[in-house]
């Protein structure tokens, strides 16, 4: 199939990983030759409760027997959508009680930016250098990666950039700024956590200038960092929160949530933000089952216990640092070539690891939150054996 994959399916890079997937279960993906791959990436943080989680599969089957798509988003009352939005209202802090469901993370970013412009009547958005919020043209406008952006210029105007964790830059947020959009923990940049008091200072500056704070929880959301939402570690509540990835438990979804006061602006102009498939009932049912599983199995606490397990056992002279929180971790190696080599050799040994967007010395470890300690040990031993090999070869 590799040839047909390359011939008929549009490619995103010259060197795809190319596992020919046969089936997946729990923490493993199996290829067509029967080889098992232990998954330390979880579809880039999407498969939060593993592959083919029975509760999610059952919810999907149940909904399939009732109805699939019936009408564009927002017209008919569909129980899976309503119940999911209600569940999110229960999980989110403060007044963040109204949710708009879309199909992907980048759409959630688009929706959040439009909502902020609409609510404040202002033209500007402030974003952080080395951020990533998606790949459609609005999301790309708030991404700062000239190499990837330049071929698509012009993108949307009115974007100003600040350096994440730089308190002095906060004066770039002014009374012209509709919103500041930040990842709670910068993902592609290398799993950079906000410095002490940083997010609070951003929020304060937003309050002074009448600007909305949008936090992107697409990677950090839903127990991955040991709290239901990453921002709960930093004692701040955003005005709009963007979610996706894990929310679907393996199905495609995105959402932006805000207060009733802010969200009601979306009605005017009528149809100012619409989607056909957003909140698809089968996917909403899958999302609801995922959230219930995360809550009922206390995956927040388990993520923290598993983080400690990894930090205790994954020690090697080539690992300069382990960044991140909970099961959103990245290994920082001395050089890019070593990070690259680790990912490729691990794949050969049946362990899936992955790179980050900007920080090329980093290797991503974001397994399903349901991974067992035995599975973690197995993966850690593979990583350590490769690092030993590389230590001898490269240094
Ligand atoms: C922080 C963050 N925001 C937004 C996105 C975009 O989500 P999607 O790929 O579902 O459009 C991603 C995806 O990697 C992400 O990590």
Task: Note down, in words, how this protein is organized.
The protein has 2 domains: 2-52 and 298-394, Aspartate Aminotransferase, domain 1 (Alpha-Beta Complex), CATH 3.90.1150.10; 55-296, Type I PLP-dependent aspartate aminotransferase-like (Major domain) (Aspartate Aminotransferase, domain 2, 3-Layer(aba) Sandwich). The chain is of the alpha/beta class. Helix 4 (79-91) runs parallel beside helix 10, helix 11 (299-313) packs parallel to helix 13 and helix 12 crosses helix 13. The protein has 13 helices and 15 strands. A 7-stranded mixed beta sheet has the order 4-10-9-8-7-5-6, with helices on both faces. The chain has a 4-stranded mixed beta sheet with strand order 1-2-3-13. Helix 8 (198-209) links the parallel strand 7 and strand 8 (212-216). Pyridoxal-5'-phosphate binds next to helix 5.
Quick recap:
The protein is of the alpha/beta class and 395 residues long.
Anisotropy-based shape: globular
Our count of helices gives: 13
Structural class: alpha/beta
Mean pLDDT: 97
Descriptive terms for the model:
single chain; 395 residues; alpha/beta; Aspartate Aminotransferase, domain 1; Aspartate Aminotransferase, domain 2; seven-stranded mixed sheet; four-stranded mixed sheet; binds pyridoxal-5'-phosphate
List the helices and strands and how they pair.
Blueprint: H1 2-8, E1 21-25, E2 28-31, E3 36-39, H2 42-45, H3 54-64, H4 79-91, E4 98-102, H5 105-120, E5 124-128, H6 137-141, H7 146-149, E6 159-162, E7 177-183, H8 198-209, E8 212-216, E9 240-243, E10 254-258, H9 260-263, H10 281-296, H11 299-313, E11 321-325, E12 328-332, H12 336-348, E13 351-352, E14 354-355, E15 362-365, H13 373-394
Parallel strand pairs: 3-13, 5-6, 5-7, 7-8, 8-9
Antiparallel strand pairs: 1-2, 2-3, 4-10, 9-10, 11-12, 12-15, 14-15
């Amino acid at each position: 199939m590799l040839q047909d994959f390359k011939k008929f399916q549009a490619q995103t890079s010259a060197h795809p990983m190319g596992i020919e997937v046969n089936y997946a279960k729990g923490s493993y993906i199996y290829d067509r030759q029967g080889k098992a791959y232990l998954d330390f990436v979880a579809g880039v943080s999407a498969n939060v409760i593993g592959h083919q989680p029975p509760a999610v599969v059952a919810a999907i089957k149940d909904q399939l027997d009732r109805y699939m798509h019936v009408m564009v988003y927002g017209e008919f009352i569909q129980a899976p959508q309503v119940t999911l939005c209600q569940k999110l209202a229960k999980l989110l802090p403060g007044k963040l009680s109204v949710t708009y469901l879309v199909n992907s993370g980048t759409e959630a970013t688009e929706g959040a930016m439009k909502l902020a412009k609409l609510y404040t009547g202002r033209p500007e958005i402030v974003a952080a250098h080395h951020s990533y919020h998606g790949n459609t043209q609005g999301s790309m406008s708030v991404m700062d990666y000239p190499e990837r952006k330049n071929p698509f210029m012009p993108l949307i105007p009115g974007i100003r950039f600040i350096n994440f964790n730089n308190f002095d830059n906060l004066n770039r947020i002014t009374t012209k700024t509709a919103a500041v959009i930040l990842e709670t923990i910068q993902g592609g940049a290398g799993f950079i956590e906000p410095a002490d008091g940083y997010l609070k200072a951003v929020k304060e500056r937003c309050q002074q200038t009448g600007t909305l704070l949008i936090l992107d929880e697409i990677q950090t959301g839903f127990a991955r960092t040991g709290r239901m939402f990453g921002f709960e570690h930093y004692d701040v509540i955003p005005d709009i929160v963007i979610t996706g990835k894990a929310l679907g438990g393996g199905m495609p979804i995105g959402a932006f949530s805000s207060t009733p006061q802010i969200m009601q602006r979306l009605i005017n102009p009528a149809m100012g933000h619409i989607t056909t498939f957003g909140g698809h009932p089968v996917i909403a049912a899958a999302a609801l089952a995922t959230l219930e599983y995360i809550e009922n199995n206390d995956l927040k606490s388990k993520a923290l216990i598993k983080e400690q397990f990894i930090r205790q056992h994954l020690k090697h002279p080539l690992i300069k640092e382990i960044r991140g929180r909970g099961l959103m971790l990245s290994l920082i190696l001395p050089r890019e070539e070593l990070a690259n080599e680790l990912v490729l050799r691990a794949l050969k040994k049946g362990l899936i690891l992955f790179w980050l967007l900007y920080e090329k010395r980093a290797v991503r470890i974001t397994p399903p939150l349901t991974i067992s300690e035995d599975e973690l040990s197995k993966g850690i031993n593979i990583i350590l054996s490769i690092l030993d090999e590389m230590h001898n070869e490269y240094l």
